[in-house]
Amino acid sequence: MTKPPPGSRPPALADKARALAEMQAGKAAAKFHAFDKAAEIAERVKDATALENALLGKLEAQRDFAAQYVALFPHGVRADFRSDSAVRSGDDWCLTFAIHVRTVRRWCELLDAARYVEQKNAIFKRCWTLAEMGQAANYSSESVEWYTPARYLEAARDVLGSIDLDPASSAQANVTVHATEFCSKDDDGLAREWSGRAFLNPPYGKTADGGSLAAAFCNKAIEQYKAGNIDACIILVNSLHSQSWQAPLFDYPFCLVDHRIQFVSADGEENKNPTFQNMFVYLGRDVGKFADVFSRFGYVARKIEQATERQS
After folding, report:
1. Among 31, 57, 135, 272, which is least packed by CB within 10 angstroms?
2. pLDDT tens column, 108-131
3. Among the listed residues 292, 311, 238, 303, the one whose alpha carbon sits nearest the alpha carbon of residue 48
4. Backbone phi and psi for residue 196, each to the nearest 5 degrees, phi listed first
């Protein structure tokens, strides 16, 4: 009976391993093509959240397909692949999944963990740029104003009692907000001290130094609350939790809205096809009241604090 060469697998096991690898490759290829199409649609309609999900799914599928390719054609990543017969058969194998081998060779870089994380971060940055360019909750960098619908403002007043300040608003928006004082775009709410009970739906776009305008307003709200200048504040933002600037918001109770808010344009028309998910954040002491009122809009939660003391 002839024994297989040292280090090689018996034919039956090799066939089984190859069949498993091809099955996994087929699943990865199907995911890649599906997410590729989803990303194309999301970018066309400028849906930053959907685009991020699609691109992350596509990236994972690329890495998974590359892993199976390397397992089946271990010489395929060699620079002299054109003279390697196993790799030439790999060309045809890749084409059966409607993917060119040169494309798969690029995907093999994703098998390096650092490179994979780098590509993920690039996706987050790309999608955040799209979100910043999109229509903002109150007004965008192109000065297109969108106003918060009345029922959410009624809920905010129910929690706060009344709204003393809206630091990022306009005269038309304040018809519904009913704030005692508001700052328009020309007033520069970032340059002023805030007081009382505030409602903030920040503008999007860029600051003079290229930072996030929404981040600047949210940081200002937290700063003013910690300083005791405002008693409470409810913040309404697009839910982009993968963006680092939103991390400080999750130190406070928040409501993840279970639907997309249809903001109202200057002519009174609702946006029938909103592209962003939203959340409310509460800076204040009456957390129970916030939870009772805003649970009608979604899921109210707060971050679990990890114990800092070690158990002896």
Report:
1. 272
2. 999 999 999 989 888 887 777 666
3. 238
4. 75, -145
What confidence tier does 10 reach under pLDDT thresholds 50, 70, 90?
Answer: low
Calpha distance 298→284 (Å, rounded):
19
Q: How far apart are CA 287 and CA 159, in angstroms?
A: 9
List all residues 6 or more positions away from 187 whose beta carbon is below 8 Å from its beta carbon: none
The CATH code of the domain at 146-301 is 3.40.50
* Cβ neighbours for 205, distance < 8 A, ≥ 6 positions apart: 132, 136, 140, 141, 213
Whether pTM > 0.90 for this model: the answer is no
From CA 218, how far away is CA 307, in angstroms rounded? 27
Q: What are phi and psi of 180, to 5 degrees?
A: -60, -35
User: 249: exposed, middle or buried (C-beta count within 10 Å: 0-12, 13-18, 19+)?
Assistant: buried
Residue found by looking up tokens 């903001």 in the block: 263
3-state SS class at 264: strand
Collapsing DSSP to helix, strand or coil, 118 comes out as helix
**Among 123, 107, 115, 118, residue whose Cα is nearest residue 63:** 107
DSSP conformational letter for 79: T
Instruction: Quickly state the pLDDT bin for 311 (edges 50, 70, 90).
Output: very low
Q: Which of helix, strand or coil describes residue 306? A: coil
Report whether 290 contacts 159 (CB < 8 A).
yes
**Residues 264, 179: Cα–Cα separation, whole Å:** 18
Residue 174: CB partners within 8 Å, gap ≥ 6? 166, 182
* The pLDDT of residue 132 is above 70: no
The SS3 call for residue 231 is strand
The span from the CA of 187 to the CA of 89, in Å, is: 67
Domain boundaries, the chain: 11-133, 146-301
